[in-house]
Each structure stands twice: as C-alpha cells, then as structure tokens.
C-alpha cells in the first residue's frame, strides 16, 4: 500500500470482488477477534488458565481458548449465511442455518503455551461453500481440499493486533486501529521472496524426525559449507501464526515434521489439517509461497476426518521445492 491514503477492510474486500455474504461472515469473525484482543491486551489472567486441559480438573477455571471459542460461537451461531461452524476447541460441528451458503472452521486460539511468556498467539479461520444436499450436522460438509477455500485468515495478537486475510485475490495484511475500531490495510498483495536465509523448526525434536528431514535441516545448519551454499539464521517462536506472519513479512521456511520414537511409529504430524494447515497454506500460496505436507501439496489433500493431522513445510517457494526434489531423489535412489 503506497501513500498515506487509509483503506479499511470493507473497501479492500469490495475491490477484490468479495461477495457481500462472505464479507458479512468475515466481519462477524473479526468482531469476535476484537473482543479476544481486548481480553489479551488487558493482561488480567489471574482467574484464567493457560493449560488446555485445566478445565477438566477444575470447573471453576476457564481456559483462554475456551473463552475465545465461546466469544466467536456466540457471534456466529445466528449468522444467516452460515450453514455450520466447526471449532478445533471442542471438535464439534454446530448447525447454524440449513439454508446457509457457507461453512466456517476455526482454531480460536493458536499458540496458547506462549501466553504466560507474553508470546504470540492468534485465531485461525477458513471459509468454504456448503453442499446443499448434505445436512448441516454432517462432517462431510467440511471434508474438501484446500483449493476450494473461499477465504482464509488469521488474527495475530501481538504488540499490535494484525489481520492476515485472503479471499483468493492475493494476501493482504491489516492492523487494528484502536482509534477507528476497524482493520486498516497495512500491506496489500504480499509477495514472499522465493529464496530465504531464515528457517524455523523446533531443533530440539530432531532425534524423532525421519532421516530425510534431518538431512534437509542439516543444509540450513551447515550454511555456506552445505548444499545451500549460504548461511541461514534460525528463528522459532513456538506459534504457527507467528511463524507464518514472519514468512509473509520477510520470507523464510517453517517445518513441523512427522515424529516417531522407539515406542511409537512415525505419526502424521501434530498440526490439525483442516483447522490450521490448510488455512495457512492457502494464505501462503496466495502470497507466492508454497506448502507441502511431507510429499504432497497441502491444498491437493482431501481430508479424511476433521481431526486429521499433517506434517508441514511452508514458506519461500524455492526452499520448499528443494525439499520436494530432494525427497523424490531419495525415493528414486531407494528403489534402485
């Protein structure tokens, strides 16, 4: 965005050709996010718990995730254009309006373990078209590839409250103006650099990774002496929304690999495919990046369940492509 002209969310989405019904849903989600932002910025957490399972032990304690979930659901439950909503918090599908045109899935508060250290947290959401012949209570409504997402975004609760949003016409970043009480366009049509000198991964977990992941990450650590032929810096925030925001702002690659131990076979990753992986992948690819779940492009995956998990490598296109090519080469050699 150039010059000093202030552009509000409604104006930008209208310019992008966003349907009025979709715009209305997005604004309702953001109304809830503003309330969550106010709670987080107040810093009054003495009566709350950061632990996701605390409420199971003490009915008097409400988690911040549960509070965020309730705020969003209370606003969305009466929305005319929504057929159903699905929240990662309880894993439940809530029927809204059988005649609604859209479906909404969301993670009310990503990165909650960061709250007690004043780290980054956020709300992730995605919106798809509903299927007329399926009941609003049916999980099958939400089982569709990421390519069919109509809008995806996340609100980052940091030093400022920021919104990253795409409706399939590029990815834009907004900031919440406390003066106007609305989101104002900060950067439009984000283009992630194809190459990077930054990577992000929880390096302490490398003993649990597949060998191909270990080899790929080694090139970052080896720097100019490795196959990458350049030095890299390690960045890790412990928050998916924080990682993606940094990638959008200055490039980079983030990995959340599969893990396996002697007792447990290699899993499918930890991040929820529908609630987290698909929305951020749609956002990043709309900004010239790339996202893979191990050996498959994320947006090509057809989920099997709402609770399905997936590994993730996402960010600057050339770095992700290098991983994919190296993985295919390794498979080819193994078959010889």
Itemize the secondary structure elements and their pairings.
Blueprint: H1 9-15, H2 20-42, E1 48-49, H3 54-57, E2 62-63, H4 64-76, E3 82-87, E4 93-95, E5 102-110, E6 121-129, E7 149-157, E8 161-166, E9 171-177, E10 182-187, E11 198-200, H5 211-222, E12 233-234, H6 240-250, E13 253-256, E14 271-272, H7 273-285, E15 290-293, E16 296-297, E17 309-310, E18 312-315, H8 317-335
Parallel strand pairs: 1-2, 3-5, 11-12, 11-13
Antiparallel strand pairs: 3-4, 5-6, 6-7, 7-8, 8-9, 9-10, 13-18, 14-17, 15-16, 15-18
Helix pairs in contact: 2-4
**Strand arrangement, largest sheet?**
4-3-5-6-7-8-9-10
Q: Per CATH, what is the topology of the largest domain?
A: Fructose-1,6-Bisphosphatase, Chain A, domain 1
Q: What is the CATH top level name of the largest domain? A: Alpha Beta
Give the helices and strands as they follow along the chain.
HHEHEHEEEEEEEEEHEHEEHEEEEH
Radius of gyration over C-alpha positions, nearest whole angstrom = 20 Å
Largest sheet entry? 8 strands, mixed
- pLDDT averaged residue by residue: 89
Which class of secondary structure composition applies to the elements?
alpha+beta
Count of beta strands: 18
Percentage beta strand: 15-25%
Ranges with pLDDT <50 over ≥5 residues? 54-61, 331-336
């Amino acid at each position: 965005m150039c010059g000093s002209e202030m552009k509000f969310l409604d104006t930008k989405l209208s310019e992008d050709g966003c349907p009025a019904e979709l715009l209305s849903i997005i604004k309702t989600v953001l109304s809830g996010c503003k309330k969550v932002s106010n709670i987080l910025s107040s810093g009054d957490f003495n009566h709350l718990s950061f632990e996701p399972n605390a409420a199971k032990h003490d009915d008097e304690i409400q988690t911040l995730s549960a509070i965020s979930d309730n705020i969003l659901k209370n606003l969305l439950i009466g929305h005319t254009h929504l057929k159903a909503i699905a929240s990662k918090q309880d894993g439940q599908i809530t029927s809204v309006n059988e005649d609604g045109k859209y479906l909404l899935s969301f993670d009310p508060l990503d990165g909650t373990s960061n709250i007690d250290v004043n780290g980054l947290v956020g709300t992730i959401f995605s919106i798809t078209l509903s299927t007329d012949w399926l009941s609003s209570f049916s999980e099958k409504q939400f089982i569709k590839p990421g390519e069919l997402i109509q809008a995806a975004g996340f609100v980052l609760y940091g030093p400022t409250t920021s919104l990253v949003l795409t409706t399939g016409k590029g990815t834009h970043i907004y900031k919440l103006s406390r003066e106007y009480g609305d989101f104002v366009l900060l950067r439009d049509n984000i283009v992630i650099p194809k190459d990077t000198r930054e990577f992000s991964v929880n390096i302490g977990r490398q003993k649990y990774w597949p060998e191909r992941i270990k080899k790929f990450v080694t090139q970052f650590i080896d720097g100019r002496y490795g196959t990458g032929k350049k030095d890299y810096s390690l960045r890790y925030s412990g928050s998916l929304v924080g990682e993606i925001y940094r990638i959008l702002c200055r490039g980079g690659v983030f990995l959340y690999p599969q893990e396996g131990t002697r007792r447990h076979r290699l899993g499918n990753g930890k991040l929820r495919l529908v609630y987290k992986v698909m929305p951020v992948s749609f956002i990043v690819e709309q900004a010239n990046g790339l996202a893979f779940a191990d050996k498959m492009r994320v947006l090509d995956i057809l989920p099997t369940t709402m609770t399905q998990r997936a590994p993730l490598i996402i960010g600057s296109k050339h770095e992700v492509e290098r991983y994919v090519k190296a993985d295919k080469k390794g498979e080819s050699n193994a078959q010889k």
